[in-house]
# Entry
Amino acid sequence: MLQDLTHGRLENEYRPVPPLDSDYVICVRGRDILLHRSRDDTLEFPTVSQVRRWSGTWTAWGSEPLRYVFRLHGVGYYLWMGPGGKAEEPFRYEMARSLRQTVSKEVCYTAMTGWHLYNWYKNNRFCGCCGAETVHDDAERMVRCPSCGNMIFPRISPAVIVAVTSGDRLLLSRYAGRGYTNYALLAGYTEIGETIEQTVHREVFEEVGLRVKNLRYYKSQPWGVDGNVLMGFYCDLDGGDAITLDERELAMAGWYPRNALPITDDGISLTREMIRTFGEGKEPK
Ligand SMILES: [Zn+2]
# Structure
């Protein structure tokens, strides 16, 4: 999956240090992220020294235009705190959502995580209670309102990915009205006041009209491009297998045999790993 790097891990702990010239900067403009794509399709973020050279005319939201976000392999990553501006060739803005097709999991993972943080910072520049400008806390990743004391922590939306099984069959679906048109598992956000298990039961019933039992937790995945943490579950059909499709959410849903699943693992998404794992008969029983 996206977060399973070959070596090392994303060090998300908030331990800000001043940027070095060779550290990387994640610059966001609308839905896009500034990257250099080489001939062999490898992608690289601009460095601090490059961004400092270009950013004379760029807009920044506050007095600290480079905000520390995380480290990977000893290199610091910073966000440009404002809309990214014009950069020199060969750097170009690439759609954040399309980066899952990139050859580098590290770039995809860091870009999606940086994107998630950027949007959280952007949406919390002002206090939702009193409208005053917020400031960053010194000790942790949190912004606070100096006027009313409101504390705002990073927002992550929990959601479930559900593999409904019936013997050697797996329920696959396709979303309605979304950019991603390939096969998927059922998925949905947790409602306030609901347990994760209740989310699984509710989403399955809402989307395909089926009852399920024997929920087995598999793995989770951060999915920054949508601001989620996804939790994957397998479960068994409980009762009849006739599907009642929620056509607002899904374009189709159907049962597929374990030995003829029509989609392969891309090494990125929890959904695809769960489908492959079922195909191999290795899902938690
Ligand atoms: Zn306030």
